[in-house]
Amino acid sequence: MFKKLVDFSSYEVLGIATTVLFFIAFVAIIIRALVLKKSYTEEMEQLPLDDGTERDDTENDHDVDTKE
Fold it and tell me: What is the C-alpha R_g of the chain?
């Protein structure tokens, strides 16, 4: 009875399947990264810095309007 609980020989197919699935996913991610367009990667690269507003680079944000 306890021998069946400690016998892991039936799990070798699960280990092989998991390893094969991992390598298929890894290769798929590498291939996807290699075929991405440069314009898309540049757009995604700037996304964390974008606050969603259009900004005119010619205006100076540090000037404070003083009222007299």
Answer: 28
Condensed to tens digits (0 to 9), the pLDDT of residues 27-62 reads 999 999 999 898 888 888 888 777 777 666 555 555
Q: Among all chains, which residue has been given the structure tokens 């609980």? A: 5
Total structural domains within the chain: 1
CA 13 to chain centre: 30
Rounded CA separation 67/64 (Å)? 10
21 within some domain: yes
Helix (H) or strand (E) holding 1: none
Give dist(CA 35, CA 27) in Å, integer: 12
Placement of tokens 């020989």 in the chain = 9
Give the separation between CA 39 and CA 16, rounded to whole angstroms. Answer: 39
Give the predicted TM-score (pTM) of the model.
Answer: 0.51
